[in-house]
Specification:
binds N-{4-[(3-aminopropyl)amino]butyl}acetamide; zinc-finger; 23 strands; 5-stranded antiparallel beta sheet; Arginase, Chain A; phosphoprotein; Protein deacetylase HDAC6; single chain
Length: 924
Amino acid sequence: MVSPTPPSAHVQGNCVAQPRLPRAVRMVSLRAGQSDSIRQRPGETIFLKGGEQVKPFPPHPDLQPLTPTCNPPCLAAAMPPGVSPGPEGPSAPAPSGRAGRRAPPPPRRSPGLPEAKRRGRARRLHQEVAELQDGLQHLDLAAEKPVPSGTGLAYDKELTSFHCLWDKSFPECPARLTSIWTKLVEDGLVERCVPVQARLATEEEILLVHSPQFLALMASTADMEEGKLRALSDTYDSVYLHPNSYHCARLAAGTVLAVVDKVLSGELRNGLALIRPPGHHAQRERMEGYCLFNHVAIAARHARERRGLQRVLIVDWDVHHGQGTQFIFEDDPRVSYNTPSVLYFSVHRYDNGAFWPHLPDSDSSAVGRGQGCGFTINLPWNQPGMTDADYISAFLQLLLPVAFEFQPQLVLVAAGFDAAIGDPKGQMLVSPACFAHLTHMLLALAGGKVVLALEGGYNLHSLTEGVSAALGSLLGDPCPPLAGPAAPCPSALQSISKALGIHAQFWPSLQHVEVSALSTEDEGVEEALGETGGVPSPVELPCPEALPSLEAPPPRRPPACTGLVYDERMTQHYNMWDSQHPERPQRVTRALSRLQELGLERRCLRLPPRLATEPELLLCHSPEYVARLRATVGLRPRELHRAGSRYNSVYMCGESFEAACLAAGCVLSAVDAVLAGQVQNAVAVVRPPGHHAEPDAACGFCLFNSVALAARYAQQVAGRPLRVLILDWDIHHGNGIQHIFEEDPRVATTWQQQQSPWPRASGHCWETPHWPHLQSWHYPCLHTPSPVLSMPSAWPALCTVPTGPAFVSMDALYAVTPLSWCPHLSSVAPVPPAGLDILAPCQKCGCQGENWVCLTCYQVLCSRYVAGHMVAHGDASGHPMVLSFADLSAWCYDCEAYIHHPTLLPAKILAHRLKFGNELPALL
Ligand code: Q9C
Ligand code: ZN
């Protein structure tokens, strides 16, 4: 078997240990000629025809379900005596194939097969146990952890009891809160939230941020007359005071704390504090910009000092720079790399200093001071009119990479809505839907512990729409679709690039982004992009749905959120010649029982399994191929063996066709449920896998391409053009899916960039580049001569996906075997004789069983389950290595393991040429 994209091997001495490849890459199937010669190994479950099981041995540790009773202690108990369980604790090195982790045993001659086997097995067991244990260190396998649920909503009418006495049209007015509340009631959101009682912040709490003198001054305003209030207000920048201002500011601060405490205690999952006055401009000894106390800053200090959190992220998307928050934390002596503390991120209108508060400190050059360096991140916009695309880009490219590196334990949002369309101050164009997306992206952080505190927002309509959309996300509603166009504008890209350039020194996550020194000039960028010459011209896309109207009701979470589809009959597909084959029935039975153990299964809506119909299979596969697979039903083992060996790495039994129809049908059933709105998303626990299956051929354990079929089916069922994204995170390339869709503009696959999925509102499509959002990722670095376009890691984009329709196939669940260290390779002859005949019969008995070749003397011999001549030869000669022509892997007798080594390459290349008639794909 040949992996299309093999990872590189790690060299140790003259040996190469394979990195953690799935078995699929390394396993050699040790096939017998007949099914009655199946040998059972300890722990294995052999599936006989008809699904009958035999289980005479106690289970092998690496085959046990990962139940709480089978955690590391039990694995340790399963280890051979005298074997240490290996490094423990969180500081233990991650299991990987790094050279030097384990010393290989010294080279030696084979001491005879039984002894070598015993030792090999012991060694491998030890390795497997240690690896598995390492791997489990960081997994919390507790059966069922309580998942915090409920979205807290804090509001108190009392907070509307102050206004500007001398300016009736002052934008920061009580109607802001009352209209939000009305809207949330109207949208049915209030009843879905858990009410959180507003409370006053204590003096002690205020003092976490503000000085005693300032607190005393504010307290004294409660008794002041209008004249005095106005006079005092005028000594500050952009504030008014009302006799109730102090009380309300304390109530606002306390209310944020109330929500934060409930989220930190796990009583609530997340929350929103509807408060005024706002807070993010307030400084230690100053009120400013309508703000008296800095609620969010107080909450961050509270979380750290009273609740013991180490890392708090503050995201400030109010259109104004939260200079107050920045000043409070930028030189915080408690901020340091050793004791990570508060990370402040603000995206705001700056206009090169022309926008309030007109501070050079609001530019991206302000990064924090002293030990706080890098913990202040400013993204200033230098133009009004920033759109959803600009804000989404800011998050995907700057905030999220840093936030994932920082790993906050709590996210506080200074949630102003004055960047929303129609706000008189911000003059930005952010849609309500965008606030849902911004909120949603943050929910991936801090275990979802996200608390929004209202800041600005002065257009009552866009304020209320924005709050409603953000709250919808907190409640788990799918994000409303964004209206195009979706490309960040040049000015936004320039701001983002500059901030990336500045912060790359603090955050390695930003370092792969090459920032152009000349990115300010469109010309420079275009020129450099032109130089690559590799951007194919875009294909015109039909521009399907009309843009979602603002009046359309926002999508809400269906009652049953996640569908689950599974059918036991899929286990009837099995490998009758090799029960150790990695694609085995237990993959899905285990997955399902694990879902049950975790209590996840009963939280899903069970969807009906079904068989894919003939017309459905024809959506991706040729009639000839479907007929050919159908004809395998009821074949005898020998014929099935032949049928399977027509293809690359495929086995079949009499039930394979049905299982494959079932696997595909189950995924289609999931599509049906999602498209009908019955569930929001779904998981299909299916096998055989599908993504290698070609229109005309089975491949790589896959018979029908379930995911490709599902994509076509979705388009058919929808009855309208539907853009489908297929994300394939299987370690192997999904060649089948790619081949099926590479000329279909309606399906985007994640390993290639095709046409833009974002039609313009006007009805025509984007010119190059195909994915405007990637533009700034591969900003050409004009210092290097060849502007290679490098793909970033895709994870930030993933953050926007989870609550939308999504399907997960179980293709990635191959058993992963531990590393093998082979000390026996020095004896391998470097060059195999030309013209190895892979069809040659066994040189000992002339049988046509599976062919192996000894890599020392190049005799062709039958496998150990045929007449065992390969085993006998190894035993007698002490030659340690044989090469299987079935899938071009090498087996070492002494290690009892499959080995890859550069010296085997000539043999593999030759064997591949002989077996498949073409060249081995690049290997190493
Ligand atoms: N000519 C918040 O949005 N504008 N505060 C001052 C002076 C101050 C806004 C204009 C705006 C403060 C929380
Ligand atoms: Zn503001």
